[in-house]
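Fresh eyes needed here. Have a critical look at this protein's tokenised backbone.
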Amino acid sequence: MNTFDSIKIVLYRKDDLKYQIASEIINKSVEKKKKIYEFHDENDLSLKILELKKKFNSKEVLILKEFMGRKFQKCPGSPNVICCNYYLLNTCFNCLFNCTYCFLNSYLNSYGIVQFVNLEELAELIKSHCADINHAVRIGTGEFTDSLMFDDMTSIANNLIESTSSIPNLFLEFKTKSSNIDHLEHIQHKGNTVIAWSVNTQANIDLYEEGASNINERIDAAVKVQKWGFNTAFHFDPIIKYNNFIEEYFEVIDLMASRLDPSRIIWISLGCFRYSPGFKDIIKNSFPEEKLTVEEMFPGCDGKYRYLAPDRTEIFKKFKEKIQHYFPDVFIYLCMEDSEIWHKVFNKNYSESNDLENDFNMYLLEKFMK
């Protein structure tokens, strides 16, 4: 599994050492004898990146810089589909893992892992948002990066959990493909924190999730954090078709059932592989041996290419039945699917995303907020 030790080059701006994240990462980089380069402005950074591209791949370079955009926002979702109305914290861009299907591959000009350093106000942004809301609020950090890949270096999760654990309606999710969780063991006040894993079959992990932990390591990590008192969640997304894929996904669910405490699993999401127009050419260029796009796929109602609707419906039905067999009380939801699929799989008549959010809130209120 790739970790902070996989980073070979760290770039920083001297003025940014006033931020705790920047100063700690630079200090730890010195201890680990990494190559450290200072840049003075964006032009200087661009010149240094041009040179580094000749010798190092994008996953080996860490860039520390301020982020001047929105640090807190609602998940943009996709048009014409049902979304869960999740909220995002933007803490980093790109990650240590080289997943073939990752939408971040669409950013052709992106180079390096960009760790934002000016994050001191994140806890206050969360508190302000939750202050006048009486229903559950789900917020996560894993949209544009992996939440825990080197959190032992940044302490972002530790600081946010400790700072916001007293908010009764907050469900703060840290989604990962890593097993980097040992630094979370001694957090005293956990609130409703959710440590979540993207899960897949080992065949798909081997083919499409380069550098990530294997499925046994992810389940082992989930067992640990449950014992420490954390809630957990799991995301079967993307579900990728191949010969006997259902049987192998079901083996993963069997493994989860044999190892995990069902009362500590708070939600499970399902989503089939999908991609935006133009993405096929991008991943073909970067991953010429990939087999993801050989399946018959057509544009859906949001313009993304997807497996045929009858195939997705059948996949989701089978997953739902299998998961409910072991985890009957867990909230299962579809990630960015249309209302027709929702009706066929769950017999839910969702006409808009608020309908899903309302059901989600009722579940969380009943099970975790009383």
Observations:
- The first strand starts at residue 9 and ends at 12.
- The mean pLDDT is 96.
- The chain has one domain: 66-110+119-368.
- Residues 66-110+119-368 form a domain with the pyruvate-formate lyase- activating enzyme fold (CATH 3.80.30.30).
